[in-house]
């Protein structure tokens, strides 16, 4: 056996994304890239803001010894201070550099948080549908996933979460704005969830942590605001990145932040720094840390994504697809007009449209469209979406 059983299981879970990628390559070779409509990956196509590129030029031109050397595992003190000041403005709490660890993306942040908090067989409650890598990350650290289903409108089912919390529960992991649905959990649901966790923590005699994955926090539409988990719940941690709001996913730069009043705060922060080493990250990229410190208030033009959302939603609605209009991120998660979402994905492939079935996110009967693509791709795909919908009516 060339690879471990665990890796073989991971191949199976990740097969849909890989399959869409490979199918896309085949179709583009056969029909030309302009005649294939690939909505499979959440890879933002917008260029970073001009200010970010200027900062890169300025930093590259500055002389200075040791700027490409190791720094503390938690990151440059100056970068952490600036991120902490930015977080203080964002959440209305007083963060310090000691509440922040710079990481290689949100994935790095999640993994150091999970490694720090979890012992083998600890349980983590995860609402479904969800980002398909969560199960892999939790498996990395020996945890047991306790899935709960989101509400019919993809809202948090706090009663279901409360029912899933047991003696081995260590944390609840949420994501808002949400991949794959684009849902933003309103403040009322976050506050109710906080009450559930306070009650569970008191019952268990230890904290049940709330972990929020927030790389899409600043990609929201129509005046929607993303409520702060920090103002709702003390034993909370955030994993985030600049991949989506600065459109730099390949640069792998993000951070983990903890509530200033977190139980055993200093020990947890020490654990996060240690796990940067133990997991082999060592530190976040030095050049990107220096760059991010100068552009924290910059972001891509969200109106572009909103325009694409509206173009896609209006076209699919006219064709008879059912969905909840996204409030954030750049994903649409329509209900499949076939009970078998995999079969629907196959029909769309015949139209050279690549999407991901809901089963890949733990939600069969739906499919995900990533609309971080140019408008020409959306416009070119809409007739194919319509033809498949009409075919299913016959």
Kindly describe this structure.
Helix 5 (105-117) packs across helix 10 (265-278), helix 7 (158-164) runs parallel beside helix 8 and helix 12 (302-319) runs parallel beside helix 14 (375-393). A 7-stranded mixed β-sheet has the order 2-8-7-6-5-3-4, with helices on both faces. Strands 9-12-11 form a 3-stranded antiparallel β-sheet. Helix content is 43%, strand content 13%. It has helices at residues 5-13, 15-31, 50-61, 77-91, 105-117, 134-140, 158-164, 187-204, 229-232, 265-278, 286-292, 302-319, 341-350, 375-393, and strands at 37-38, 100-103, 123-128, 144-149, 169-175, 209-213, 236-241, 254-258, 331-332, 353-354, 356-357, 367-370. It folds into 2 domains: 5-48 and 300-393, Aspartate Aminotransferase, domain 1 (Alpha-Beta Complex); 64-292, Aspartate Aminotransferase, domain 2 (3-Layer(aba) Sandwich), CATH 3.40.640. The protein starts with a helix and ends with a helix. With 394 residues, it is of the alpha/beta class. Helix 9 links the parallel strand 6 (209-213) and strand 7. It has 14 helices and 12 strands.
